[in-house]
Amino acid sequence: GSGQTDFGPQLKSMNKQLFTVVAWDPRGYGQSIPPSRDFPPDFFERDAKDAVDLMQALKFKKFSLLGWSDGGITALIAAAKYPTLIHKLVVWGANVSVTQEDVRIYNGIRDVSKWSEKVKKPLEEMYGHKYFAKTCEAWVDGISRFAENSDGNICQELLPDIKCPTFIIHGEKDCLVPQPHAEYIHKHIKGSRLLLMPEGKHNLHLRFAEDFNRHVEDFLR
């Protein structure tokens, strides 16, 4: 995805009087091309450092992070590793381990030609079919490798290091990231809040944008 294709309702409607909203594309995504996207074993740590480096270059002394899906994993790592910089943290559709069942789910979306036209179209317009298809396959391979680690670990050991107020949102109909992942994160971040949205799927911030924005703004105030 990209900031542009994936966070329209947040960029447009979040309260600009209360917040400065910075949407960034990790290297190889959206407007951060070149380079082409790759998935070395440390790609989440690399993205977390890139995000923090960007915010410091923009002269923000402290900031909150909103992270969806892979961005949620990145945000969790950043909050654990740079605790003095992160004010508050919101993650949704995130996981800190990869099971064999997750690998099966990921392989189900490997072939982008089988995606719905609605989801596929903005991404093909941004990337072109070839880059989009190649990057999705590379992502499936990259994230599936974590299943070979003990407990499928991505960053489980970092959760107790997260000290900032943390809000976890999860859609109960999320087919890509099963609910136990959200419950695990909630259990291992002391004092965190968990909100389950009964009708929410993986893209709950788009489908239920008004509710999502309201919950997030209330938490960040």
Automatic annotation (TrEMBL):
It comes from the Eukaryota. InterPro entries: AB_hydrolase_1, AB_hydrolase_fold. Pfam families: Abhydrolase_1. The keyword Ribonucleoprotein does not apply. Keywords: Hydrolase. Gene3D superfamilies: alpha/beta hydrolase. The keyword Hydrolase applies. Signal peptide: none annotated. Residues 15-104 form the AB hydrolase-1 domain. One of its GO terms (molecular function) is serine hydrolase activity. This is BPHL hydrolase. It comes from Eolophus roseicapilla (Galah cockatoo).
